[in-house]
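queue> pop job 88
queue> type: inverse folding (structure -> sequence)
queue> payload:
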């Protein structure tokens, strides 16, 4: 049988007030091809903590893609991705402020090929007055699509109204 199926394992706990921790792992049975050098798998762990108007978050995830038989001979075959996220948020009444960073590193099978890190940072602010929300967001993205030197900045301003 060359079909695909996946099994996911998860654990989650709240050991103290305001703290949540968890982890997950996914393994794939069958790859859809007869032979391979690496089966796909992924896993992550995270923690969030909220106290008063502040909340903090951190996570790290790993993902290994399928590598077909003979794929190890190519210099561009990805071994795994390593992603780290962290964030902080402040919510007080009608005001919300947040900042987040994501770093995602693409690592290759061959040590002679340098890894590439894609990074994004964003800051958001929103204020609600009755049925109207005013929001602004600024994002900075470096090495977009794992292309060194490819950077993008975005600015979003939004006004939404509920009737």
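queue> result:
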């Amino acid at each position: 049988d060359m079909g695909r199926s996946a099994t996911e394992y998860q654990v989650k706990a709240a050991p103290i007030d305001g703290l949540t921790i968890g982890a997950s792992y996914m393994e794939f049975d069958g790859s859809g091809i007869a032979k391979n050098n690496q089966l796909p798998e992924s896993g992550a762990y995270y923690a969030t903590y909220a106290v008063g108007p502040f909340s903090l978050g951190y996570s790290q995830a790993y993902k290994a893609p399928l590598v077909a038989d003979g794929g190890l001979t190519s210099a561009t075959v990805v071994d795994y991705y390593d992603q780290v996220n962290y964030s902080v948020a402040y919510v007080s009444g009608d005001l919300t402020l947040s900042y987040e960073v994501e770093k995602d590193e693409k690592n290759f099978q061959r040590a002679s090929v340098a890894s590439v890190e894609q990074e994004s940072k964003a800051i958001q602010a929103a204020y609600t007055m009755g049925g109207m929300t005013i929001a602004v967001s600024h994002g900075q993205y470096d090495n977009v699509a794992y292309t060194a030197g490819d950077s993008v900045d975005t600015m979003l301003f939004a006004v939404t109204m509920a009737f």
